[in-house]
Amino acid sequence: MGRYKIRGTGEWRCVLLGMLALLLGCSQPSSTPTKTVVPTPVDPATAGKIQVDVRYSGIVPTPKPLDMRSAALCAASHAEPVKAESFLVQDGHLANAVVWIKTGLEGWVFAPPSAPVVIDQKGCTYQPHVATAMVDQSVEFVNSDREAHNVHGHPDVVTAWNFLLSQPGASRTLTFDKPEVAIPVGCDIHPWMRGYLAITPNPYAAVTPLSGAVTLSPVPPGKYVIAAWHETLGTTEQSVTLEPSGSVNVQLTFAGNG
């Protein structure tokens, strides 16, 4: 099982919510020493870039509005209905897909970015809906709502977690020592709240915007497998060769019905 560390702020708001968190099986923090990482240097003179375009071919389902009527504060925080972000396509380009270098860097060592990845709970939704972090990089969950939220991760590889953020400004920070693409994250109090966190073994990862396009750089020359994952469409991948100081264009297409 993977390890993780938790730190954060915020107080229990009431006994009921505290009991709820206990019943949900809150994870306990583990005490582990900080790793000393000596990264493999990437030569800027020979590094290149991999430009990835993620597309969808098929019938695009109509996004459904999220039903927030059971929580008045959640519904009141939006002037218009909030559409689900699970399937966003614009002109054939797919958003919210995780793109990363899946294989080809096994002999390399990378230091995790010092800046944390921040996932906010705002308007009773996860912002962003899909996020990526590197192994051992801090991931900070923040509650910007007046509503209490619990953050329940459902991984297959790393250790599961479940904790309560009961007040505005409350936060918890986790790190993960194993890759996993991607981990469903939800709130048991507000069942429409769902997001995904992808933990990758190297820093070459990104989530596609509505344009479907991301650039991975600076990448050392080599042979790689580039993968894209989507929460409803699964995973697709392609092998590429990046020459010294080169640039490669990759198109990854998910096929749908129709």
Query: What's the CATH H-level homologous superfamily?
Result: Cupredoxins -  blue copper proteins
| Second rung of CATH, namely the architecture | Sandwich
CATH fold-type name: Immunoglobulin-like
Structural class: mainly beta
Task: Give the strand order of the largest sheet, numbering strands 1, 2, ... along the chain.
Answer: 1-12-9-6-7
Number of domains: 1
* CATH domain class: Mainly Beta
Cα separation of the termini: 41 Å
| Quantity of strands, as a count | 19
Judging from the principal axes of the Cα atoms, what is the shape?
Answer: globular
Strand percentage: 35-45%
Helix and strand string, N-terminal first? EHEHEEEEEEEEEEEEEEEEE
Proportion of helical residues: under 10%
User: How large is the radius of gyration?
Assistant: 19 Å
Count of DSSP H/I helices: 2
Overall average pLDDT: 88
